[in-house]
Design goal:
With about 700 residues, the chain is α+β, with helices and mostly antiparallel strands. The strands form 5 sheets. The protein has a 7-stranded mixed sheet, with helices on one face. The protein has a 7-stranded mixed β-barrel with strand order 8-9-10-11-12-13-14.
């Protein structure tokens, strides 16, 4: 391009000297390709290889034998006209864009006539009189108007032309070349390619393969091609005729049903940004052909039959208007959560119309989640293909199909939790997590997903296997729902949940989807009354911070806690956090009582045996030691060995002869809470925790004495 401009600048100074030279054999009925070359040669134009016009002259000879012959023979006969001459180098570049060889162009007489007729301006073009924004009428029916862009560069006034139905901008040089009294010539740096028959341009597949910045999109097209063929053949059979099928690899499309499309293709940088914000890997996404195809189809938009003049040029950036709506391809089937029932909203196109030749275009997808800014900006516009117009965008629009369940299923380390969701007993919850927010009353749910290792360790601690969960539906539902936060807060306010780890207070309490009767302390620690939502707490503390001031976050359930491995993984209907431990539901079926804890702790064997001797198993298992929660300071086996050695006795002797002393020792190790509360209204969970202890705290023990706890 730089070389053509330089040569054109030289020509501009040269041709001013020969602007009054009349050429013989160009005007009236004597115009031929040879006569045009001779006229240019007489004025010493076209001798340079970079500014040769041999191919344009060949087109003139073809055009004289076609339907545009009369137009060419009558050039300059009635009124002033200007012929835009295009050099051979520009034709070579245009042939690459059109994916046609020069021989193929000359053999297409319709294309030849369109090129020639769009090169005939129905007026004299004088660089001193033309103004910025002027329209030039041509002899073409498909490209009837050319628009002028005037650029003042220091002391040089430069002219550029473009068209609203084309994608090329051409610089003009030497605007005063006179071919005959009423016919002048002007030289253009590029060919304004007319949008004639669509097969004059390459397929979307070839365009994506030829542009390095679209290599990731090209790979996505390749691996989803077979699925796309099935989709295209079934999507439009018997459809209402407002849209039409199309093909990426060939130029076969349903033109009568408006098969043209606007293809908004993500650049490689856009794909990298998408992987970062969704925390997906390329291998995981590209292994899910259905989701990958939905991402591609979501940014392939079509105008509907209610919008007029639907043809190839309708999808150019210069044809788009602010607020334009494009129907995503497959909106009612592959992109919809309920095929045939709920259709995905249209894409909105925002255009800055203040710029004419280079417009700012932005597309916006459906606002499926507060976690996605579902917009993208066009960084390269108006690449013409045989089935539509390609626009390169700077971000990947997230389709509704990227739900929380889809995010879970794409991660191998969460395969066990995903299998639990797929169980028949969890069908309702799975459908909820796989439904976009527009049709989902539980929008913005958050899933705390334990890893496969975490699930195995937790089940091993309880004494079950993974298969045991599938044998008892109640256990399965309790285990899964305890890891899902409802959209309602713990107080029941009907507000959408917008959970972001680390952005809230240091302690947040959330209601889970697990509803279970409360634990009634006054009724021997049994579960009584109406089920209520069990809660979990998210603790964020900056005490003892790590480097770079990264806060520590803990998810605390009733019976155990977990740390966050990853958090705030977005989806179109909520978020996902990956945790390193599975939370144990506080239910009777799971049965993790004080006695169960003691039983499952290997270092508390002596303590367990001594409590059994004293007959306290029932209290530790169900009845409890008061109205409130109890904290047990259980000595380890080594601690008992030390005590027995100090007392100069054995475990058997103290169990048989000193049961009263043994009872006092154990009662001294128990610190029950004695608060009174209304069990019908809420479930109180307020045991003594070491993290809340202060130096010198005094706790009332079951021995009705006092135990002083000192924190060092």
């Amino acid at each position: 391009m730089t070389r053509v401009v330089a040569v054109g600048a030289i020509l501009f100074s040269v041709t001013l000297l020969c602007s009054l030279v009349a050429s013989v054999g160009v005007c009236s009925n004597d115009l031929t390709g040879a006569s045009l070359l001779n006229a240019l040669s007489d004025m010493r134009i076209g001798t340079d290889t970079d500014m040769s016009f041999v191919f344009f002259a060949a087109l003139v000879d073809v055009g004289l034998q076609s339907y545009c012959g009369n137009t060419l023979r009558n050039l300059g006969s009635a009124s002033a006209q200007t012929l835009i001459l295009v050099p051979d180098s520009a034709f070579e570049r245009a042939s690459i864009v059109m994916d046609k060889g020069l021989e193929e162009i000359t053999s297409d007489r319709v294309l030849v006539c369109e090129i020639l007729e769009s090169s005939i301006v129905q007026a004299a073009l004088n660089s001193r009189d033309v103004r910025d924004g002027d329209e030039l009428s041509t002899a073409s029916m498909r490209m009837p108007k050319l628009r002028v862009d005037v650029v003042q560069d220091i002391n040089v006034r430069k002219l550029r032309i473009f068209t609203d139905v084309g994608t090329t901008i051409a610089d003009l040089f030497a605007t005063d070349v006179a071919l005959c009294p009423r016919l002048s010539a002007v030289f253009a740096s590029e060919l304004l390619i007319p949008l004639v028959e669509s097969n004059a341009f390459p397929s979307v597949w070839k365009i994506s393969k030829s542009l390095p910045e679209l290599s990731t999109s090209a790979e996505a097209f390749r691996i989803t091609d077979s699925l796309r063929v099935i989709f295209e053949s079934s999507e439009y059979d018997g459809y209402d005729g407002t849209v039409g099928r199309s093909s990426l690899q060939t130029c076969v499309f349903d033109g009568t049903n408006h098969g043209f499309r606007a293809y908004f293709l993500p650049s490689n940088r856009a794909w990298r940004r998408f992987f970062r914000k969704t925390e997906l890997t390329k291998s995981a996404l590209f292994s899910d052909y259905s989701l990958l195809l939905s991402i591609l189809l979501y940014t392939e938009g079509q105008l509907t039959s209610t919008q007029q003049s639907i043809d190839l040029k309708s999808y150019l950036s210069t044809s788009l208007v602010p607020g334009q709506l494009l129907r995503p391809v497959g909106a009612s089937t592959i992109l919809s959560a309920f095929p045939g029932q709920v259709e995905i909203p249209a894409l909105r196109v925002d255009v800055d119309i203040s710029k004419v030749s280079s417009r700012y275009v932005r597309i916006s997808g459906g606002s499926t989640s507060s976690r996605f800014d579902n917009t993208a900006v066009v960084v390269a516009a108006d690449i013409v293909s045989c089935t539509g117009i390609v626009h390169i965008i700077d971000d990947v629009l997230v389709p509704p199909m990227l739900t929380a369940f889809r995010q879970l299923s794409l991660r191998s380390e969460l395969s066990m939790f995903t299998d639990l969701l797929r169980a028949p007993a969890m069908h309702e919850l799975m459908l909820e997590l796989d439904t976009p927010s527009e049709t989902n009353i539980f929008a913005d749910s958050v899933v705390f997903a334990p890893t496969n290792v975490a699930i195995r360790l937790t089940l091993n601690y309880i004494g079950w296997t993974f298969e045991d969960l599938f044998q008892r539906d109640a256990l399965l539902r309790q285990f899964v729902t305890y890891h899902v936060i409802s959209t309602r807060s713990a107080e029941g306010a009907p507000e959408r949940l917008k959970f972001r780890l680390g952005l809230g207070p240091e302690e947040q309490q959330f209601a889970t989807r697990l509803a279970y009767p409360i634990l009634a302390k006054s009724y021997a620690n049994t579960f009584q009354g109406t089920p209520i939502a069990k809660t979990v707490k998210v603790l964020s503390t900056r005490r003892g911070v790590k480097k770079f001031f990264t806060p520590r976050h803990v998810l605390r359930g009733r019976l155990n806690s977990a740390r966050f491995i990853k958090s705030d993984i977005p989806s179109t209907n909520g978020g996902i956090a990956i945790i390193d431990a599975a939370l144990i539901p506080p239910t009777a079926e799971f049965g993790v009582t004080l006695y169960d804890r003691i039983l499952r702790t290997p270092t508390l064997r002596v303590f367990r045996e001594l409590t059994s001797v004293l007959g306290l198993q029932r209290e530790f298992d169900t009845q409890g030691f008061g109205n409130g929660d109890c904290t047990v300071f259980a000595p380890t086996d080594s601690a008992w060995v030390t005590l027995l050695a100090d007392l100069m006795t054995t475990q058997e002797e103290i169990a048989n002869r000193a049961t009263a002393m043994l009872y006092d020792i154990i009662m001294l190790m128990l610190a029950p809470r004695t608060e009174e509360f209304q069990e019908i209204e809420r479930e109180l969970y307020d045991p003594w925790l070491s993290k809340d202890a202060l130096d010198g705290d005094e706790l009332v023990t079951a021995l009705s004495g006092y135990t002083t706890v000192r924190v060092l």
